[in-house]
């Protein structure tokens, strides 16, 4: 059996990659993919602790996180399409001009 520390290390690495992408990228598509990486890191943690404790609660929550991620992608792609239609680019910094 693989020790839980390996899963936690993998999850931390994936989360850090996603956080780096969120903080440094200006493209909305990269931003959306980075958020997905962060959600997948949370899923790795949930499933690892579910296996460690021997119950199905973590796997159940992971399914809810997957459903949340699918809804987030659907809404995010719609927002990105409107951003591209209005500004001709998918840069997140251009959305600040939509305020007033």
Automatic annotation (TrEMBL):
Membrane topology: Multi-pass membrane protein
Any matching Pfam family: Oxidored_q2
BP GO terms, sorted: ATP synthesis coupled electron transport
Chain ranges passing through the membrane: 6-23, 30-54, 60-84
The keyword Metal-binding belongs to this UniProt entry's keyword annotation: no
Family: Belongs to the complex I subunit 4L family.
Name of the protein this chain belongs to: NADH-quinone oxidoreductase subunit NuoK
Organism of origin: Natronocalculus amylovorans
């Amino acid at each position: 059996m693989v020790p839980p520390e390996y899963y936690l290390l993998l999850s931390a690495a994936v989360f850090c990659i996603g956080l780096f992408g969120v903080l440094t990228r200006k493209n909305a598509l990269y931003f959306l993919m980075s958020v997905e990486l962060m959600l997948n890191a949370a899923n790795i943690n949930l499933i690892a602790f579910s296996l460690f404790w021997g119950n199905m609660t973590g796997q159940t929550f992971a399914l809810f996180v997957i459903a949340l991620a699918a809804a987030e992608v659907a809404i995010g792609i719609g927002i990105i399409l409107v951003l591209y239609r209005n500004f001709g680019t998918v840069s997140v910094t251009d959305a600040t001009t939509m305020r007033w």
